[in-house]
Amino acid sequence: MPDDHSFAADLATSAGQVLLNTRSEVVASGTAGGKALAKMGDATAQEHIAARLAAERPDDAVLSEEAADDPVRLSRERVWIIDPLDGTREYSEDRHDWAVHVALWECGALTAGAVALPGLNATLSTAGPFSGLGAPAEPVRLAVSRSRASDLVLTVAERIGAELVPMGSAGYKVSAVVRGEVDAYIHSGGQYEWDSAAPVAVAAAAGLHTSRIDGSSLEYNRKDPYLPDLLVCGPRLADKLLRVLASI
What we know:
InterPro entries: CysQ/Inositol_MonoPase (IPR050725), Inositol_monoP_metal-BS (IPR020583), Inositol_monophosphatase-like (IPR000760). It comes from Georgenia halophila. This is 3'(2'),5-bisphosphonucleoside 3'(2')-phosphohydrolase. It holds the Pfam family Inositol_P. By secondary structure, the protein is of the alpha/beta class. The chain has two domains: 122 residues, 2-Layer Sandwich (Fructose-1,6-Bisphosphatase, Chain A, domain 1), CATH 3.30.540.10; 107 residues, D-Maltodextrin-Binding Protein, domain 2 (3-Layer(aba) Sandwich). It contains seven helices and ten strands. The strands form two sheets. Strands 1-2-3-4-5 form a five-stranded mixed β-sheet, with helices on both faces. It has a five-stranded mixed β-sheet with strand order 7-6-8-10-9, with helices on both faces. Helix 1 runs antiparallel to helix 2 and helix 5 runs parallel beside helix 6. The radius of gyration is 17 Å and the shape is globular.
């Protein structure tokens, strides 16, 4: 059996390919689009991931956005936390800024994970490799929602003179920090564990700061998977951002 890092990367990558194939087939047939395409993508990616986990990691529990929550996960030592398609809007609009999330939680901590970026033909995983962490840019670049940055992020940006960089899904935004395209991602608008588990696992493996916006630890595989806020940034920027966040 492949190690969990390699398995997570392969699973996320293969699900991404399923999503690309599904979108191409649907667009070519002209039978669906928009929300219907997004729903189909969610379903096909979930089916693919569930089948592989059942076959290759049958003793592990699963928490997925697209499946009923089985409380047995709370008594297991290994739980896969999955978002089969993070960024359904971007996916349905034939954009590149969406992702597939696969993370492994073991005995209280995230131990492996991968974020596939099929639109870029890339997958980031806890196995690396990662480039060295440099100093934040001047001005600091903040990844924000395509539609509207939150009031919190707008206030932070104003206080530190940051540049706002709009992009799609949460996983794509965290990946942009890992890839050095932006310096930080601050989120306060509500998320669930599957929205951040894999990106946080990868970001932490890359040496980035990951926490809630009050600086407290991110905890996973809880009874209630609601995990509404997130900060991911380079370690040189963390104290500055946490001080500003605490003052708002």
